[in-house]
Amino acid sequence: MVDGKITIALLGQPNSGKSTLFNGLTGLKQHVGNWPGKTVEKKQGSFTHNGMEYIVTDLPGTYSLSANSDEEIVTRDYIASGNADVVCILADSSQLERSMFMLADFAGIDVPCFLVLNLADVAKDQGKNIDPKKIESKIGIPVILMSATDVKKYDSFFECMEKALKDKTKLDYSSLEKGYETVEGYSDLKTIISDGLVEGYSSTWLCAKAVEGDKVVRAKIENALSGEKKASYEKTIKTLDKGALSTGECKFAWIDEILDGSVNKVETSVKMGKFDRAITSKTWGKLVVVLVVIGGLLLSFIPALPIMLLGGCVTMLDEPIRTALTNANASPILIGIICDCLLMCIANTVKMLGFAFGITLVFGMFEESGIMARISYVFDNTMSKMGLQGKSVMPFLVSFGCTIGGASSSRVIDNWGQKILTIALAWAVPCGAAWAIIPMLATSFFGGYGVLVIVAILVVMIIHIWITSKIFGRHLVKKEDRYGIIMELPPYHKPKWKSLLRYVFGRTKDMFFRVIKVIIPVCLVFWFLSYSSIGVEGSVLYKVGTFIEPVTKFFGLSWQLFMAFIASSIGKEGAVGVLTALFSQTGTIFGAVAGSNEAVANSTQLLINNISGPQALAFMFAITFNMPCVVALAATYQETHSAKWTTLITLYYEASALILAFLAYHVGLLIM
Amino acid sequence: MTSLNKMSPDQEGVVASIDGDTRFLSRITSIGLTPGCKVKVIKNDKGRPILVFLRDTLVALNNKECERILVEERSN
After folding, report:
1. CA A394 to chain centre
2. Which of A23, A84, A122, A636 stands 20 to 30 A from A439 (CA)?
3. In the listed set A258, A282, A297, which residue is the last one of a domain according to the structure?
4. In the prediction, which pLDDT does A595 show?
């Protein structure tokens, strides 16, 4: 108990409805962070019941409590450390036998607990009759059969929870232990390892994990032992082989024993519907996935548009505020900061939130409904070559439209390292803003040959993704963590809009502050660098740009092009505007980025007169493969929760864009 | 007896043995695949994971890794 608050931890396999229960309990009161020192997302929330305040920790959804991933280690360490007053273990009633594995793997961790048999409605539809009281009598902890989606019926859940807290109910696993005793080496280890040798764990749990070959547990036991005991421990361990299979069999035998007489036997089967056959088809599968993702992207605009329009309205405040400030004799610096910078930041953030909101909602629905697992299946082979899961294909596709959406849709990737790697690679996909500028520039400069530039960009994109996956992949998804897919394809569920909406709303609110925290400082710095009271020449950016021009020329970028390149980090749409402003000497750099400059006629001719072919080529590559925009940067930070990796990715892209510009420039010099 | 990755759709059987390193064994048992478990292959396309139905659940497994899972076939 912390500050009089009770902590309950939710433990369950993926698809056991853990998130639904978490959302149902906490509503909008949730917070996402990181587990200290680990690359694992930590979700916490709170609720009040009968005047007591409860903190809910949503533990990562894993299939077991072994040491196969950081997620599992974080989970078991958290439970064993006694941070939670009670552990709520979830199982899926419709796949009871399999999903009770978590309960069996938990057995032996000395913490009060109770069991939730979730998805009761689905089990009922299958014709399963489950008797929770009978299960309760066999395992000695409160058991409740429920549907986490039915928030109105949470009363019995609370009763169960309060009982577990009051009586400190512990799981009775004596029968499981009898099974373990038949496993080779277990009884020998039992004489060596005592309860609590490693804090928080019983000897049963420790021995079972040692038999299974759990490296982390084995090392901990070895550290805790000494002398003769250590020697005989090491001797016993050496003789063991394939222990995980034997204990696995024991666990399922125990589960069978619990379920025997508690559930009627129903033979279930799996039917592949029309959609399932299409999406998993060897020939059409990938195309169907691409269409589904594009459809999802379009669909996400329906909830996004109203919010994005609201963001557009913010820009309408520009004129009245500007007039009011001017009338009040405010300094031009203040007017610039407020109107050009802050207002634009807020407008863009709101627009981005709208977009992220739509994406999170639609792709959250994909995940809940079971579509996501199919996408993962179809693209598993392709994506695993880069160390990614099949569903990582989605952020890539979305990034062709907008990298912000790409970063937001990476939320469904459940491994943190893979999530960052996915975003890092998705940045290399030219976004909609690049597609709006590049073809126009390419045809203006090279006419019909412009198509070749587009082809070259696509080829470079693929090579870029491949190289970047090698550079970042080594650190983010370690070699020993790359293994074949073992994943459940859950049956299709109707998405639960209410709980999904509640979750997405809560998240969006959180996001606003996080994102604005990133955008405002970046834009302010850029604004100050580009500020000048006497035309462009007075700005720091101009002075630096012209000073280092000998260097940037090397990359094929004149000072004007280099400035536009820097400005394109804020937003690619502004790059051409910045060039126009610089060459025509009208408007300001920041005004061009914010889009408030007056339009200049014949801007294309202006560019052609001032930029050579190779330079144009260099510039196109530089802005295409530059960081997408400051909002995408913020979205990346929001999803990864890592300032370190966000910074690394940003610097990497700024640098690699210049390298590509250099290559393009020199290739251009050769062929033109 | 055959390995799981050689089975064709709709074929059923009972898992006889599983081989592999600790990590694989631990992962595969935690999703429900243990010796003695009934399995039915749903889909087995080249270059795709195998879809197997076991313990009320549809599971996708890496094709190559399924070489190490031996199954006693049963005629249906």
Report:
1. 12
2. A636
3. A258
4. 66
pLDDT score at A141: 96
Q: Per-residue pLDDT tens for A455-481? A: 999 999 999 999 999 999 988 888 777
pLDDT of residue A65: 95
A66 interface with B at CB cutoff 8 Å: yes
Task: Give every CB contact of residue A22 below 8 A, 6+ residues apart in sequence.
Answer: A10, A30, A43, A45, A56, A58
* Domain count for chain B: 1
Give the tens place of pLDDT for each residue, A496-543: 787 778 778 777 777 788 788 888 888 888 888 888 777 777 888 888
CB A397 within 8 A of CB A385: no
Cα torsion angle, A564, A540, A530, A353, sign: positive
- Bridge-based pairing of strands A6-12 and A86-92 is parallel
**CB–CB contact A485 B37 (8 Å):** no
Tokens representing A558?
Answer: 């004149």
For residue A244, list chain B residues with Cβ-Cβ distance below 8 A: 22, 25-26, 29
- Do residues A79 and A163 both lie within one domain? yes
State how far the Cα of A485 lies from the Cα of A649, in Å rounded to an integer. 27
What CATH number is associated with residue B63? 2.30.30.90
Q: Across all residues in chain A, what is the average pLDDT?
A: 89
Residue A252 is predicted with a pLDDT of 96
Q: Are residues A217 and A245 in the same domain?
A: yes
CATH number at residue A210: 1.10.287
| Distance of alpha carbon A90 from alpha carbon A615, whole angstroms | 61
Shortest Cα distance from B73 to chain A (angstroms)? Answer: 18
pLDDT for res A190 = 94
Identify the DSSP state of A108.
T
A443: Cα separation from own chain's centroid: 38
Could you tell me if A398 and A297 are in contact, meaning their C-beta atoms sit under 8 angstroms apart? yes
CB neighbours of A315 closer than 8 A, spacing ≥ 6? A343, A344, A347
Is A654 within the bounds of a domain? Answer: no
- Retrieve residue B74's tokens: 């049963």
Could you tell me if B6 lies within 8 Å of chain A, comparing CB atoms?
no
Nearest to A249 among B30, B34, B47 (CB): B34
Reduced 3-state DSSP string for A649-661: HHHHHHHHHHHHH
Assign residue A38 a region (left: φ > 0; alpha: ψ between -120 and 50; beta: otherwise). beta
CA–CA gap between residue A273 and residue A260 (Å, rounded): 32
If asked whether residues A147 and A95 sit together in one domain, one would say yes
Domain that holds residue A187: 177-258
Kindly give the pairing relationship between strand A486-488 and strand B57-61: antiparallel
Answer whether A271 touches B (CB < 8 Å): no
User: What would the mean pLDDT of A309-322 be, rounded to a whole number?
Assistant: 87
Domain boundary among A242, A258, A274: A258
DSSP assignment of A420-482 equals HHHHHHHTTS--HHHHHHHHHHHHHHHGGGHHHHHHHHHHHHHHHHHHHHHHHHHHHS-GGG-
pLDDT tens per residue across span A176-222: 999 999 999 999 999 999 998 998 899 999 999 999 999 999 999 99
Whether residue A362 contacts residue A356, with contact meaning beta carbons closer than 8 Å, is answered with no
ipTM value of the model?
A: 0.95
Judge if A13 and A41 occupy the same domain: yes
Return the minimum-mean-pLDDT range out of A235-239, A581-585, A643-647.
A581-585
Q: How far is CA A573 from the centre of its chain?
A: 27
Q: How many structural domains compose chain A?
A: 2
Strand pairing partners for B13? Answer: B39, B73
Q: Pick from A96, A376, A381: which is nearest to B47 by CB?
A: A381
The pLDDT tens digits for A379-417 are 999 898 888 988 899 899 989 888 988 998 888 787 788
Contacts with A252 from chain B: Cβ below 8 Å = 32, 34, 37
Give me the pLDDT at residue A483, please: 80
